[in-house]
């Protein structure tokens, strides 16, 4: 199902949450709303889902004006950061809940729930209570519950925000594979740049209630529309008065055309990466090297070097 947001505005008192926002999400895409806290991404998600009403503008889902349609009639599935599980119900009953209130036949419910539990790798935990699951397992249960009613649109608001880094990594890999299997149009909110770059087909960068840029992860990272997008999406440093990616800086041990003289202020080893902080007079840029690059240059604190940004 495609989603069209047209000239949507939303205020909370004097605070402008969304300012004339327009966006089209193509059918079957996995789109990330990415931006800093308070930028408007969750408000936009909630308006698409019907949990908030816009002050101005419209929302169309699959060509139908859904702006004033209540959430329960939009055929939208929700997954939030905190799982909102029914603590007294088993995993099976949590996933079955939406089907039961729609009074689907018991045989259909049983088949659908078992299918979904297998899809999210929780079939062996069907009889457990949510408190007996890990955080990652509870979030997979929440996704199965959202998918049970076969939504046309799946909306996820910081779905992995409450989990530790390793579990987040595992779940975003799993979410990408799951989406490739079910192909439901999906929008998820995140402030984690790596998560967005790794999972999404399309990024929508939002700041101060406005969309700064829309594009594929590669387009937005390699060709940022402005300094905000570049600064927000990946590391940056300053050289010769402009923003550059630290991994794009070249370091030379001999004078080189178009390179700026500098001194090595410090070297910091972080796993496979070596961060080189440089003193270039008015600027203190830093470069991101592999261990092999650093060893090949033979860098040491105090060395005189020349640094060059990409042309």
**CATH architecture of the largest domain, please?**
3-Layer(aba) Sandwich
> pLDDT average, as an integer?
91
Strand order of the biggest β-sheet: 6-7-8-3-9-10
CATH superfamily of the largest domain: P-loop containing nucleotide triphosphate hydrolases
Give the distance, in angstroms, between the N- and C-terminal Cα atoms.
42 Å
Structural class: alpha+beta
Q: Note the overall shape.
A: elongated
- What count of helical segments does DSSP give? 9
Number of strands: 17
Helix content: 25-40%
Number of domains: 3
Care to describe what's here?
Residues 3-233 form the ABC transporter domain. This is ABC-type quaternary amine transporter. This protein is of the alpha+beta class. The chain has helices at 41-49, 91-101, 106-119, 135-147, 165-182, 193-199, 217-222, 227-232, 291-297; strands at 3-12, 15-25, 30-34, 56-61, 64-65, 76-80, 153-157, 185-190, 202-207, 210-215, 237-239, 242-244, 250-252, 260-270, 273-279, 286-290, 304-308. It has 3 domains: 3-75 and 151-231, P-loop containing nucleotide triphosphate hydrolases (Rossmann fold), CATH 3.40.50.300; 89-149, no CATH class; 237-308, OB fold (Dihydrolipoamide Acetyltransferase, E2P) (Beta Barrel), CATH 2.40.50. The strands form 4 sheets. Strands 6-7-8-3-9-10 form a 6-stranded mixed beta sheet, sandwiched between helices. Strands 13-17-14-15-16 form a 5-stranded antiparallel beta sheet. Strands 2-1-4-5 form a 4-stranded antiparallel beta sheet, covered by helices on one side. It is elongated and about 75 Å long. 36% of the residues are buried.
